[in-house]
Amino acid sequence: MQNDQATPETETRTPESLDLDAAYRDSQVGDVLAKLDRELVGLAPVKNRIREIAHLLLIDKLRKQVGLASEPPPLHMSFTGRPGTGKTTVAMRMAEILLKLGYVRKGQLITATRDDLVGQYIGHTAPKTKDVLKRAMGGVLFIDEAYYLYKPENERDYGGEAIEILLQVMENQRADLVVIFAGYKDRMDTFFSSNPGLGSRVANHIDFPDYAQDELVSIADLMLEKLNYTFTPAAEKAFSEYLEMRMTQPQFANARSVRNAIDRARLRQATRLFDRGGTVTPADLKTIDEADIRQSRVFKIGAGTT
After folding, report:
1. Which pairs count as long-range contacts for 169-174, CB under 8 Å and 24+ apart, including other chains?
2. Max intra-chain CA distance, the chain
3. Nearest-CA neighbor of 120 among 57, 162, 80?
4. pLDDT at 240 over 90
5. Which residues pair with 230 in a beta bridge?
6. Residue-wise pLDDT tens digits, 23-70
7. Ramachandran angles phi, psi of 80, nearest 5°
8. What is the DSSP code (8-state) at residue 42?
9. Which residues contact 149 (CB under 8 A, 6 or more apart)?
10. Taking the CB of residue 56, how many other CB atoms lie within 10 A of it?
């Protein structure tokens, strides 16, 4: 007669201890966090918060392994800050972390705005929103300038329908989709206060501060290095002066404005080389000099943005 009673050898035993360092290495989360450090200058509070979330998720995973069942940590997020502060890059790395820890199936980041979600006539919004959600399922949906979904002054606006669909999916399929809302902090605060059902489902609020002037210069140096360009010392000093003035002007967009300024400096460098004519050296081709920066209209009295 077969004995169905479990023996000590066949019982599933809860381990007395777990190697946290080994679990961290095996998850490869540290590699993603290191990549984030390399990609983005500064943003220490943001990086620390992402690290804390990653640690919580890993601990939650280990708790499940030893039978300490509980509600999964809330994953929907809000990223607030001005343009060019790294929100999209951090969202990409967050998607990687979620994938490596098994909280999403695919790990893709789908970026959407109001135009992707809201229709212009009756019956148009639901299919658009559901199509975006279908593509994002198993990963992360990043909704930029999310407050534009809500337009209470327009009674015929269909943004409310998109929000209702998002609410249903965020609640009913939260194990298969993470939604990150992003935008200016003051507008996002109004957005969530006007939509309490939405705000209650977003537990992780991360504010992205503006970059300091020296951090923006470091960002410029990193961008130039990736493009195989370099500043002369005088050009770097001029660029720092440019930033000091540009940061006080409207529509300054942090790293995005730095990228635009570098692109224009490259145009001026190319024009300068052709105007000079003759032969050029590899050093000539990669060097941004002071004149390439100081030709910006920012240096001229009464100038607007450049």
Report:
1. 169/133, 170/76, 170/198, 170/201, 171/201, 173/137, 174/75, 174/76
2. 99
3. 162
4. yes
5. 287
6. 889 999 999 999 999 999 999 999 999 999 999 999 998 998 888 877
7. -120, 145
8. S
9. 114, 117, 118, 143, 159, 162, 163, 191
10. 12
Q: Angle at CA 143, nearest 5°, toward 82 and 196?
A: 95
- DSSP letter, residue 16: S
By mean pLDDT, which of 8-17, 55-64, 109-118, 260-269 is the weakest? 8-17
* Bridge partner residues of 205 (DSSP): 78
For tokens 């993470």, name the residue: 178
Residues 25/26/27/29 CA torsion (nearest 10 deg)? 30
Strand, helix or coil at 229? coil
Contact of 268 with 291, CB cutoff 8 Å: yes
Token representation of residue 176: 């298969």
